[in-house]
Amino acid sequence: PKPINFQKALSQSLRQDSITMDTESTYSGYSYHSGRSRGSHRHGRIMSRGERRTDLRETGTLPFSLAEEGLPAWSLLSWKGNCRGMPLPGMLQGAYRTAILPPFERSFGLSVPSPPHVGERSRDRHKSRSKDSSRSEKSVTINAPPAEPLLGDQSTRGDEMQDDNWGETTTAITGTSEHSLSQEDIVRISKDLDESVRLDCRRYLSVSLSVLLGTVVLLTPLAFLVLPRLLWPEKLRVCGTACEGLFIAVAFKLLILLLAVWALFLRPPHAALPRLLVFRAVLATLVLLLVLSYWLFYGVRILDTQDEDYQGIVQYAVSLVDALLFIHYLAVVLLELRQLQACFSLCVTRSTDGQTRHYSLGQLSIQRAAVAILENYYRDFPVHNAALLSASKSRAAKHLAGLKVYNLDGPGGNSAAAAVGVAQSQSRAMIAAAARRRDSSHNELYYEEAEHERRIRKRRARLVVAVEEAFTHIHRVQEEEQKKPPGEAMDPREAAQAVFPSMARALQKYLRTTRQQHCHSMESIQQHLAFCVTHSMTPKAFLESYLTPGPTLQYSRERWLARHWTLISEASVTSGLKDGTVFLLKCIDFSLVVTAKKIPYIKLSEEFIDPKSHKFVLRLQSETSV
Amino acid sequence: MFQRIEIQKLRDGDNLILGFSIGGGIDQDPGQNPFSEDKTDKGIYVTRVSKGGPADVAGLMTGDKIMQVNGWDMTMVTHDQARKRLTKKNEDVVRLLVTRKSLEDVVRQSMMPH
């Protein structure tokens, strides 16, 4: 039958195509635990292919992260601040820095996180080192001395500032160097383990305390009712229908309270915050005080004196339940309603490519506002594509390229002040020289962009035609299948696989031109094609996800590049948002700068205006005789 | 280029009449005024002078723009206010300050050297 032959023929060509896209296909099939070793192989192999280096280095080697291992946020602070190799701006060094983990899989286990530590840190090292080495070819002096605090690294770095023989002293990165653990790493890991134990204990503690409080609170009214019956049943005065009514009231109010507590407090939390949630603590204290005072009065007035008025006791219990319901109302107002009304407009800008969004939030603390913004980030911001930024970086490098500053005074003057002064004057000289020479980079930019646009459009046209042909082929085959007696119906997956190779090349070329090829693996493309065929979508619908970069959430987790966030803020993170609050959400590759602006206070006032003054009045010319 | 005109009111039964009609005012449509040169002029204009009446005797002509009545300004009044100022019951004489286009032409002509 025709379809099967076609399939066979196409699958052979498919195999050939798969070789060219080999690296992409090996991405997707990994389980998390094998990801690390493959990642390092990838690094080792890819070093030979110059053109691929940018993409893979930027997209990260490791598909799993500290968050999923259950390693809590505090440990990130210890190595995060050290490993970047560049000093933070002065004003933020004294600021609060807390890390916020999105707990995608909330595992409370304490697994040993050694591989990601080494992998991520060495990835950072690798990145900064290769950047410095490429920079040293072009400009000698703008490098600040890299602030690398690890002793183990200083020896391998060498003195790049004054050493012209850098090629002989730097260590080449091969695939095997990431496996080694130095002594410092072991010390650090054990320290982190202790910290992680401490933080999980803290989380356990708060959960268990709140559960305890909840059970005590819910059982107290029942205890109030039952204790007199148990302790002095014969002295109690029989109470009739009034008591029964009150019993029913207590039962239903407790049920309502239970449901309300479940609805408000027992939802799965979507974020773990570092500092105490002020309102929750206040409410818990209030409830505790209330219950304690009720018990106090109960103990003194009822248990000690063995009061006989059972109706009074039942009413006492009912009043407690009423008070608890009112506290729950207070909780709803404080925790939910207060931040609903929008008070602030937050402007969130991604630092690398300038994508900006505006969100309206109510009166929240800075930590909660940061969580809200991160949730919106995954939904709104297009996925961060580092490959698109390389053009501007190369332009910036070229701008100062070709200028070399010679220090004629020799390598004397080792004091920090002299070095700084020399560096400043040299940079000033370079800037002046660069400004003076005739710069035609704007011209180049214009033509380069025009050319790039043309190329994209050409590739896109080819892609659209190829996809349309593929889809028409599928439709034709489907119609043929329907005409024939129902034999083997073609599975959408098979149809997708049969048709995929015919458009794979065009799609791959298009993705390469728009530098998106690391976002989509071959497997994911085939899955998407099968999905579109199943739901009878048009080729345009299939192509939509490749033509425009979608929000970050739509891609698989390895492509996000934004999993660990650090909140940097000058004000305390439990303080509320104010007009002009600025805080930073830093991630490894980029940061989100958030500015808060207050929505203005609008005052409407009432004033009597003659209705004729603002409406259209037909004016006639009247004549009066006097 | 103003002319002062003094009109003696004529007693006709219970009313005092002046013998002319006015048009215009700030609440009226200035575009329909046939006598004004500037069609945004919202002043009070004399639209008709009854023959033989006190106004005709005093020398008021149609098309005159009334600037003042007994010292009260008439350039920024509503139609009704103008009527009221002219028909005050306790006044027998109204002294008007009027201007007309032909008046300006005459004066300009006389000032021009021949």
Automatic annotation (TrEMBL), chain A:
It is a multi-pass membrane protein. The keyword Transmembrane applies. Its main location: membrane. Belongs to the Vang family. Residues 35-46 have a biased composition (Basic residues). One of its GO terms (cellular component) is plasma membrane. The keyword Transmembrane helix applies. This is Vang-like protein. It is found in: Cell membrane. The chain crosses the membrane at residues 204-226, 246-265, 277-298, 313-335. Pfam families: Strabismus. Keywords: Cell membrane, Membrane, Transmembrane, Transmembrane helix. It comes from the Eukaryota. Residues 25-56, 111-165 are annotated as: Disordered.
From TrEMBL, chain B:
One of its GO terms (cellular component) is nucleus. GO terms for biological process: cell-cell adhesion; establishment or maintenance of epithelial cell apical/basal polarity; neurotransmitter receptor transport postsynaptic membrane to endosome; neurotransmitter receptor transport, endosome to postsynaptic membrane; receptor clustering; regulation of signal transduction; Wnt signaling pathway. It is a peripheral membrane protein. Pfam families: PDZ. GO terms for molecular function: protein kinase binding. Residues 4-101 form the PDZ domain. It is found in: Cell membrane; Cytoplasm; Nucleus. Keywords: Acetylation, Cell membrane, Cytoplasm, Membrane, Nucleus, Phosphoprotein, Wnt signaling pathway. CDD domains: PDZ_TAX1BP3-like. PROSITE patterns: PDZ (PS50106). It comes from the Eukaryota. This is Tax1-binding protein 3. It comes from Electrophorus voltai. The lineage of its organism: Eukaryota, Metazoa, Chordata, Craniata, Vertebrata.
